[in-house]
Specification:
- The complex is a heterodimer of chains A (247) and B (304).
- With 247 residues, chain A is of the alpha/beta class.
- Chain A has a domain of 133 residues: P-loop containing nucleotide triphosphate hydrolases (Rossmann fold).
- Helices cover 41% and strands 25% of the residues of chain A.
- The two termini of chain A are 34 Å apart.
- With 304 residues, chain B is mainly alpha-helical.
- Chain B has one domain.
- The chains are: A alpha/beta (247), B mainly alpha (304).
């Protein structure tokens, strides 16, 4: 579904990715692990179009996307839930969710029937999100910035789901959250993958947790892929255990 | 007492014009962090364009035409003049808008001349026997209000309501607010941020154009006509909070009314009409000392 081939990406003169190749197959959860500054977030930014790669290619469902803009890529069926959530914090929960569906309904509806269909699609997506995160339904008129950290992360994921993506890029969903909340969120991420078949590329510092739900994992070290293997093998890999799993 | 209400009502009317121009400034500031010093001159320019159209056309034909032209003008300025300096240091952008100020002023003088021209107020319309706009005054109990003052108030309220509905309920309005708040997240939602900025400038220029059309009958049409108004508008925007459209209008009304009351009720030997600007600005300073972000402002003013 997603293929990166020799992707090099840089912030000005600072090269963050030195030729990364990775693959995400449809229906799987793939984890990208690594220390701070290893290039995990940069990988996601390159995929979603926030950062244009210097060289290399990125293909999504067989289509080259490495020269497309972020706003074009999202409408292809990919949602990026960025590091630090990046909510519209002065807006309500519902407004955030409406914006999540923005890419699906660009331009004016051409007919009443189309307008009705859009409404139905929107309501269906909203219902789905509220099923995963009932707390968001309760809080739908609350200002996003006043939510707790866990609720904000739920809103960020919910907003991403409103775009009806086939591929979800998730950047550090556990950041700043209590272990019990993190666990809850990871269970929902797994449920999204299982019940809806949404493919997930997950960047995470908490390697233990990530490998619990992922099928496959890549370990990044200073902008290069150090190890790539199935989750089971990674968990048994001694070097990975020592560096990332805290054994 | 009549005198008092009279001053309040006229203050509300001129305050609405300050508020509209302040609103135009705020619309641009909150989405691009650009303080557009040329906002008043853009309004002056479109009012001159309106005057030219009036040489062969009806007022109510000219009105929508000018709004559309102003929107196009605003979009053009964003695309051609502002876009290239986007992301440049604040001072550069300030210089660019000051440059536009001077250029528009020059071009208007060159094209239309510096001699003040009369500019008509919106002419009368009868809707089912009720008179809108036009000449004369209306008795509303404690005082009489001129139709033109009423017109200004009605326009200000209508524009405010229209913008509120637009920003709260339409997808485009929502996207524009999103862009103002978090451009990167907006891109991830599929919003074309650049286009939103262009629309913002267009909208702002159109709102400013209305301010110009409404104030011109009161102060005569001439190239420097908006300078005083711009000063009040900036004060109104800062008073209300530079990122708050509601604040812009409220700030404008407060300034309009207090300006009038100070001019009328303080004795000449003490302060009087000559000092009304000073007193008004003093009030603003006091308010800002208490609330540095303005009455309705939420964000701190980082970039000014």
């Amino acid at each position: 579904m997603l293929q990166l081939h020799e992707v090099v990406a840089a912030y000005g003169p600072i090269v963050a990715l030195h030729g990364i190749s990775l693959e995400v197959s449809e229906g799987t959860i793939v984890a990208v692990l690594g220390a701070n500054g290893a290039g995990k977030s940069t990988t996601l930014r390159a995929v979603s179009g926030l950062l244009r790669p210097r060289s290399g290619s990125i293909e999504f469902e067989g289509q080259r996307i490495d020269r497309l803009s972020a706003e074009q890529i999202v409408s292809l069926g990919m949602s990026h839930i960025p590091e630090g959530r990046q909510l519209f914090s002065d807006m309500t929960v519902l407004e955030n969710l409406r914006l999540g569906a923005y890419s699906r309904f660009t331009g004016l509806a051409r007919s009443v029937r189309e307008y009705r269909r859009r409404r139905q699609d929107f309501e269906a997506a909203l219902k789905q999100v509220y099923e995963y995160f009932p707390i968001l339904a309760e809080r739908q008129n609350q200002i996003a910035g006043t939510l707790s950290g866990g609720e904000q992360q739920m809103l960020a994921i919910g907003r991403g789901l409103m775009g009806n993506p086939r591929l979800l890029l998730l950047d550090e969903p556990s950041m700043g959250l209590a272990p019990i909340v993190t666990r809850e969120i990871f269970e929902i991420i797994q449920a999204i993958n299982r019940t809806q078949g949404v493919t997930i590329l997950l960047v995470e510092q908490n390697a233990n947790l990530a490998l619990e739900i992922a099928h496959y994992g890549y370990v990044l070290e200073t902008g290069r892929i150090a190890v790539a293997d199935t989750s089971e093998s990674l968990r048994e890999n001694e070097a990975v255990q020592r560096s990332y799993l805290g054994y | 007492m009549n005198e008092f209400w009279q001053q309040v009502v006229t203050g509300l009317a001129t305050g609405s014009v300050y508020g509209l121009l302040a609103l135009a400034i705020v619309l641009i500031y909150r989405s691009t962090s650009v303080l557009n010093f040329a906002q008043g001159e853009m309004a002056m320019f479109t009012t001159f364009a309106a005057w030219s159209i009036l040489q062969w056309g009806e007022y109510w034909v000219m009105f929508p035409l000018v709004l559309v032209m102003a929107a196009g003008f605003g979009a053009f300025i964003e695309r051609v003049i502002i876009r290239p300096v986007e992301g440049a240091p604040v001072l550069n952008i300030v210089i660019v808008t000051l440059g536009m100020f001077a250029i528009l002023n020059n071009v208007a003088t060159w094209r239309w001349g510096g001699i003040p021209k009369g500019f008509p107020a919106p002419p009368e319309i009868q809707v089912t026997g009720v008179k809108f706009f036009g000449e004369g005054a209306l008795d509303i109990g404690p005082t009489v209000v001129s139709y033109h003052d009423l017109t200004i108030l009605v326009f200000a309220v209508a524009i405010m309501a229209g913008l509120y509905v637009f920003f709260q309920y339409t997808p485009l309005g929502l996207a524009m607010r999103a862009t103002a708040q978090n451009p990167i997240a907006s891109r991830l939602m599929g919003i074309r941020v650049g286009r939103m900025l262009t629309v913002g400038w267009a909208l702002s220029a159109a709102v400013g154009a209305v301010a110009g059309l409404l104030i011109a009958p009161l102060i005569l049409l001439q190239p420097p006509m908006m300078m005083g108004v711009l000063l009040y508008a900036f004060a109104a925007a800062v008073l209300g909070g530079l990122d708050s459209p509601v604040g812009a209008i409220v700030g404008g009304l407060i300034i309009g009314v207090s300006e009038n009351l100070v001019g009328t009720y303080t004795p000449k030997e003490w302060l009087g009409p000559d000092m009304k600007l000073t007193v008004t600005l003093l009030i603003i300073v006091v308010v800002l000392l208490i609330r540095p972000t303005g009455i309705f402002g939420r964000r701190a003013m980082r970039r000014v």
